[in-house]
Amino acid sequence: MPDTLPPSLAAAARAGAARLPQIAILGATGAVGHALLESLESRGFPVGGLRLLASPRSAGQRLPFRGQEITVEALGEDSFKGIDLAFFSAGATLSRQSAPLARAAGAVVVDNSSAFRMDPAVPLVVPEVNAAALAGHAGLIANPNCVAAIATVALAPLHRALPIRRLSMATYQAASGAGAAAMAELEQATAAALRGEAFTPRVLPHPYAFNLFSHNATMDPETGHNGEELKVVAETRRIMGLPELPIGITCIRVPVLRAHAMAITLEFDEPMAPERARALLEAAPGLRVVDDAAANHYPMPVEASGREEVLVGRIRRDLGDPSGRSLAIFVVGDQLLKGAALNAVQIAELVLRG
Amino acid sequence: MPDTLPPSLAAAARAGAARLPQIAILGATGAVGHALLESLESRGFPVGGLRLLASPRSAGQRLPFRGQEITVEALGEDSFKGIDLAFFSAGATLSRQSAPLARAAGAVVVDNSSAFRMDPAVPLVVPEVNAAALAGHAGLIANPNCVAAIATVALAPLHRALPIRRLSMATYQAASGAGAAAMAELEQATAAALRGEAFTPRVLPHPYAFNLFSHNATMDPETGHNGEELKVVAETRRIMGLPELPIGITCIRVPVLRAHAMAITLEFDEPMAPERARALLEAAPGLRVVDDAAANHYPMPVEASGREEVLVGRIRRDLGDPSGRSLAIFVVGDQLLKGAALNAVQIAELVLRG
């Protein structure tokens, strides 16, 4: 499908010429921006040129990529000229402003913000789950919420084998979901607590040292659920292709740096043996089963951090469903990688494959 | 019911004399032991004399109580002579060994271990929930698992109004549940991580700095659930008087010092409006509703720590149950107080009231 390639690459492909894509990263200096650089590098992504874009405040910073240092530029009118592929990770407002510019310049945009995720014209993609949704994209692809991306990697292989009809989730979300400044605040607040000193939170609304709190997204008065919970529900349904799937959810921020954990209960149409679920998860892409009862070793954030695979374990029958139709699992994934940058790079790989 | 009083106090009561009870604490130097001293003091518990008992290793330590210092004694054959009321918090094995001695000496035992919790002859009591179970006790009363004690304070007032028929819980458990040494390890491991130094866990089986892990209790191969999860299920059922209640549960240890949090979904026999649940919880003993959507302020461990009340918030309809019969709540309680010492002291208050 060369028509889904960035136009200039498609033209080169039609002419039989190979040309490496010109890449831009908007929001290069943030936590996800750094992770994008890491993922492009670690996956050997083809890069003909790399333009790092950020706010004027961050312009001039130099970031390492493949042994070079690249100077961050302030976002401007001409920033996307000559760009084939742009990764956006600078918030929904900037995504809405910049997407038309980048697309007019011929770039395919992979957007990490929530701006377009529920737009029916924009595919919302987790490559292991719904790569087919990319077909015929119009140059703009949405990268999902971190919880939805991580959870669906573990849910999809089970659902393919036996339909899921209900989910219940409680999350244990890391600081990184609120950005690099929140990660720094967790460390600073904790250091102050250990010294017995007071600390006033600036980035997050609550004390973070040895504490946890309901996710800081704005609360929806009608449902009593916060914006993060509603995103996870809507995006999980969309990625799984199950627009009516009932999903109960509680999103909690825990004092962990960069990997999200989630306790998930799945109700299937019929009973599913835990052994069968384990075999399905072991065979599925993007997952690693960590489920060693003898060693009491299950998925942990410190072991998921910096790792591409989502970890899954505690695969067992749910004691809360006497019908035997429900299983419980525990899932942990790097919020900056599978929850953001890695998934975006995987989408870009599919786009380039055309 | 003077027959439920410790014998010597019952005799004094029958003779019309008031006599303050002689108290012993077995396991006085542990985290719960310290919290017992705090609770006896803060609640103005009547204390005629106080004997602090521990292993020979801890004997000779001096602990403060009401402005005095009391020397810890090694547990011996005669430790319970003259004792009216003994609090045990030194593990199930020592509880099994010492309970017959203390009872033979005429003491009523309130046991914080798991040794007798499922013994049909021993009441398992959360005073706000099932104080009536104390009637006719035989001198030995079990204090529940911390999660079960904290959860049932919030569940009982709802269940009394409308029967619960199913529960789902995910816990966020503090270090204190594994003792004072685990609390110290969390601080030491975190300090080392902040300095960029390696740290080898000694108390808990996994790295604890900015990390979380499946509860360290031994795994039951048959159910795939750990001992903590099975305790919470069995004890919650027993305290609520619902021996068949299906309870799905995941217990996770988080890097928090001394308050447990839990995301709970309750399925009722019929729909329950969140507003009605909130009113019931606001009127219930031992609870404080913290549920301010505008300020995004909900129960947090740092606000529950050192506090007697269990905090409850995030009271809302469960999006995972289209029938409208399910609610979700978020509950946080001090693991050392309502989860252990305070509940034991409240039981003792009921015993003394006779």
Automatic annotation (TrEMBL), chains A, B:
Protein task: Catalyzes the NADPH-dependent formation of L-aspartate-semialdehyde (L-ASA) by the reductive dephosphorylation of L-aspartyl-4-phosphate.
Pathway the protein takes part in: Amino-acid biosynthesis; L-threonine biosynthesis; L-threonine from L-aspartate: step 2/5; Amino-acid biosynthesis; L-methionine biosynthesis via de novo pathway; L-homoserine from L-aspartate: step 2/3; Amino-acid biosynthesis; L-lysine biosynthesis via DAP pathway; (S)-tetrahydrodipicolinate from L-aspartate: step 2/4
GO MF, any single term: aspartate-semialdehyde dehydrogenase activity
UniProt binding sites for substrate: Q173, R253
Entry-linked SMART domains: Semialdhyde_dh (SM00859)
Superkingdom of the source species: Bacteria
Semialdehyde dehydrogenase NAD-binding domain ranges (all copies): 22-137
Residues that, per the record, bind phosphate: R117
Keyword S-adenosyl-L-methionine in record: no
NCBIfam families tied to this protein: asd_B (TIGR01296), PRK14874.1 (NF011456)
Assembly notes: Homodimer.
Keyword Heme recorded: no
The protein's name in its UniProt record: Aspartate-semialdehyde dehydrogenase
Organism the protein comes from: Siccirubricoccus soli
EC number: 1.2.1.11
Active site: C146, H260
Binding residue positions for NADP(+): T29, G30, A31, V32, R57, S58, S176, G177, Q335
Gene name of the record: asd
Reactions that this protein is recorded to catalyse: L-aspartate 4-semialdehyde + phosphate + NADP(+) = 4-phospho-L-aspartate + NADPH + H(+)
UniProt cross-references to InterPro entries, sorted A to Z: Asp_semialdehyde_DH, Asp_semialdehyde_DH_beta, NAD(P)-bd_dom_sf, Semialdehyde_DH_NAD-bd, Semialdhyde_DH_dimer_dom
Keywords: Amino-acid biosynthesis, Diaminopimelate biosynthesis, Lysine biosynthesis, Methionine biosynthesis, NADP, Oxidoreductase, Threonine biosynthesis
Similarity comment: family membership: Belongs to the aspartate-semialdehyde dehydrogenase family.
